[in-house]
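Lab notebook: predicted structure, single chain.

Context: the supervisor wants predicted structures on file for every construct in the current expression panel, including those that have not yet been purified. This is the next one on the list. No modifications to the sequence; it matches the entry in the shared construct table.
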Amino acid sequence: MSFVDKTAVVTGAASGIGHATALALAAEGARVLLADINADAGEAAAAAIRGTGQKAEFLHVDMTREDSIVAFAAAAQARAGAVDILINGAGWGRTLPFLEGPPDLWERLIALNFVGPMRLVKALLPRMLERGSGKIVNIASDAGRVGSLGETVYSGAKGGLIAFTKSLARETARYNVNVNCVCPGPTETPLLAAVPEKHLEAFKKAIPFRRFGKPSEIADAVVFFASDRASYITGQVLSVSGGLTMVG
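Prediction complete. Output recorded below exactly as produced.
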């Protein structure tokens, strides 16, 4: 795969799956705009990519705030013009029973995992439609496909992102814009590190491969959807979960 002369925006690029995706795209020649709320880690990640001779820049964004998303999109397009690839990788969750979750936590989960990606798509999509090409990959979660104990609101937000992916794919296909979704299972990220140990062991026992995924393994699927090899694929949801979920 080659992404030479392509510009990719990757949110959540300072760590985890977003970081692995930014690395993979840059390695294949893309100019990557790394977006994250963590400025120090994001700047360091972009500098590390540039240190390998690839093209990368960091731009700050808070995906829970509309004004930050609008400003980020304007800055990204000022630097790169029409963005070729958008990877909505920013996400976060917290494990606790539904009845113990305060409404402000619900609002943050929904803003970051569902509303924020929609807002960023709305900001960057018009130029893709004008040009008649583009790739959007939303990183959801298998929690949004089959549910997850202690992650009810997170699961609902990710389920919304999955449905959004499918509906948007129908709207944009006539403009040659592909929209797909990758659903990771339990993966070695900062999010997983916050899960209680007893839940981690239960997860691992349920995975046929008996291990958690690596961010680079999720990134492989994301990069495929972002590539020309997926030019005839849109509206699809791919689980990368070691066989934990096998959904028809």
